[in-house]
UniProtKB/TrEMBL annotation, chain A:
Pfam families: DUF5981 (PF12225). It comes from the Bacteria. PANTHER family: 5,10-METHYLENETETRAHYDROFOLATE REDUCTASE, METHYLENE-TETRAHYDROFOLATE REDUCTASE C-TERMINAL DOMAIN-CONTAINING PROTEIN. It comes from Desulfofustis glycolicus DSM 9705. This is Methylene-tetrahydrofolate reductase C terminal. Residues 111-205 form the Methylene-tetrahydrofolate reductase C-terminal-like domain. InterPro entries: DUF5981.
TrEMBL record, chain B:
GO terms for molecular function: iron-sulfur cluster binding; metal ion binding; oxidoreductase activity. It holds the Pfam family FlpD. The keyword Metal-binding applies. The keyword Hydrolase does not apply. Residues 8-130 form the F420-non-reducing hydrogenase iron-sulfur subunit D domain. The lineage of its organism: Bacteria, Pseudomonadati, Thermodesulfobacteriota, Desulfobulbia, Desulfobulbales. This is Coenzyme F420-reducing hydrogenase, delta subunit. Keywords: Iron, Iron-sulfur, Metal-binding, Oxidoreductase. InterPro entries: MvhD/FlpD.
Length: 222, 139
């Protein structure tokens, strides 16, 4: 999923304070699962904003709404009847949702209430780790299902580097060395031979190095 | 400020603090009427939003009362509640509300005297802090 974290309240207040009526929008997808921008977080932010503004001697009208998905135009369309009642939109979705809103409602200021962080997996309740950088050319089939692009600090294609120590990365004791994990996993699978193959330098064009990426499915596109 | 009577919301677990409040009553132990009890099936049921809404609607102080360590009827709802209280305390500071206005306490069903003591201490503490800045701003 795409993970996110709420921005500091102070920054959010700076965005919305010139406006009287705010449409605060959550998203039912990734940001709900990572407890950053679902219906509950919308409620918490609305309540916190109301109180902080009141304390600062001003008032704000907040309408709360959570879309099924902010990154799909058909759901964004639901907002049309509400949009005239708002001076600005505050979105708790990831950056994709925020931009979808900005594209659809050209005359409304749209502000992000969260920082979109990374594509990750949930390790346990309340803990998410980065797992994928969307490099466009998945290597997991040859690296034992462990990604050196997302999980090695140097994004080495042929690791580990000299900083790997007791399975930990040199950047911090709580960071596992991706290449150590890859080696252990290949060994467990009896695929050590894979490790000996030198991987060529990565082509970063599919990773975004050739500009913004796009997928067009001819069979689906209208 | 002399006449300030704080409004305090106490979210009390049915299996401990709520029963302790009953116990305080049957033992004729007085505690301040400032404390308004909301019975919950477990302190772990208390959501950040419940706490925030209490402050938004005018509470000067809030506490969540759960079972003693290791005694939760639902395994660890009390520990979850304690972590949630810490989280909301940090959020309250961001909003501009003193985090001391929120507290997690633990007791067993038999601790009537402790219930009365916590209610009294919390009321005194909030009385010293004065009205919640939200209530003051709304007035
Ligand atoms: S220690 Fe491992 S994870 Fe860290 S930079 Fe070196 S190879 Fe990558």
């Amino acid at each position: 999923m795409i993970t996110a974290e709420r921005k500091p309240l102070e920054e959010i207040i700076d965005y919305v304070k010139p406006f009287k009526r705010i449409l605060l929008l959550g998203c039912n997808e990734c940001v709900t699962v990572c407890a950053a921008g679902g219906r509950k977080e919308v409620g918490l932010l609305a309540s916190g904003l109301q109180m902080a503004m009141l304390k600062a001697g001003s008032s704000i009208e907040i309408r709360e709404h959570t879309l099924e998905r902010q990154c799909d135009p058909e759901y964004v369309e639901e907002l049309v009847p509400m949009i005239d009642g708002a001076d600005a939109i505050l979105s708790m979705a990831c950056g994709c949702g925020v931009q979808q809103l900005a594209m659809r409602f050209k005359d409304k200021p749209v502000f992000p209430a969260v920082n979109t962080k990374f594509m990750g997996g949930s390790q346990r309740q309340g803990v998410w780790d980065e797992r994928c950088q969307g490099c466009g050319d998945c290597l997991l089939g040859i690296t034992g299902g462990i990604c050196p692009i997302a999980r090695c600090a140097k994004q080495l294609m042929n690791g580990p580097c000299g900083g790997s120590c007791d399975g930990k990365c040199e950047i911090g004791e709580d960071v596992e060395c991706a290449w150590h994990l890859i080696w252990e996993r290949l060994k467990a699978l009896g695929l050590q031979d894979r490790y000996l193959e030198i991987m060529p330098a990565k082509d970063w064009r599919p990773a975004g190095g050739a500009g913004p990426r796009k997928i067009i499915r001819e069979d689906l596109a209208e | 400020m002399e006449s300030f009577e704080p409004v305090i919301v106490a979210f009390c677990c049915h299996y401990c603090a709520y029963t302790a409040a009953d116990m305080a009553g049957s033992q004729r132990l007085p505690y301040p009427s400032n404390v308004k009890i909301v019975r919950v099936p477990c302190s772990g049921k208390v959501d950040a939003l419940h706490i925030l809404k209490a402050f938004e609607k005018g509470a000067d102080g809030v506490y969540v009362a759960g079972c003693l360590e290791g005694d939760c009827h639902f395994k660890n709802g009390n520990d979850k509640a304690a972590r949630r209280v810490d989280y909301v305390k940090r959020y309250l500071e961001e909003i501009g509300i003193e985090s001391e206005r929120l507290m997690m306490v633990r007791m067993s069903a038999g601790m009537g005297a402790r219930f009365a003591q916590v209610a009294t201490e919390m009321t005194e503490k909030i009385r010293r802090l004065g009205p919640s800045p939200i209530k003051a701003a709304a007035a």
